[in-house]
Amino acid sequence: MSAALLGKILWVLMVAGWYVIRYPFERRAKRGRVEKTARGKAETARMLISLTGLGILPGIFVATGFPRFATYAPSPLQTALGLVLMVAALVLFRLTHKALGKMWSVSLDIREKHELVTRGIYERVRHPMYTAFWTMALAQALLLPNLVAGLAGIVGFGTLYFLRVGPEEAMMEERFGEAYRDYSRRTARLVPGVY
């Protein structure tokens, strides 16, 4: 099996793993009551851009090979590194969902009786789910040997992240006040000791 085909198969498994992890939390979240939301046209646009980069464009490439002009032959080392990042992303993704439990939301929502989660993986990092998505986007860039489809995840998710993290932190600070400011001072946004 070629490294290119293996990379495509692994990307499909990564997307399937993402869905399997998220599905039960999404079902549970639909039953919970939302007290306050910052959803709207801007949030919908950010989510669509991220979906395009992490799902639609790479999915088209995996299914059809389009755009062929941007395809190259990957090395087995590149695919192996993509696999390592894929596993790391899915593990982080699972840990974030487990730690958030009932507080999880796909968007900028404050739930009824919302609690500030600072345990588990959230003990040292404020946004480990974003860390998981960044890792997933990097895995995609290594697994899919196409400059457009591979890098689309970094661009798509990067757009969502940089346009959303500020409003999300402002919403949390408004809700939790000094407790959130204190939490922010002692934690990193994405990677402990780095950022």
From TrEMBL:
Enzyme class: transferase
One protein family per Pfam: ICMT
Membrane topology label: Multi-pass membrane protein
InterPro entries named among the record's database cross-references: ICMT_MeTrfase, Isoprenylcys_mtase
EC number(s) reported in the record: 2.1.1.100
Leader sequence segment: none
Localization in the cell: Membrane
Presence of keyword rRNA processing: no
GO molecular function: protein C-terminal S-isoprenylcysteine carboxyl O-methyltransferase activity
Origin: domain of life: Bacteria
Positions of transmembrane segments: 6-25, 45-65, 77-95, 133-163
Assigned keywords, A-Z: Membrane, Methyltransferase, Transferase, Transmembrane, Transmembrane helix
GO biological process: methylation
Name of the protein this chain belongs to: Protein-S-isoprenylcysteine O-methyltransferase
Species name: Jiella pelagia
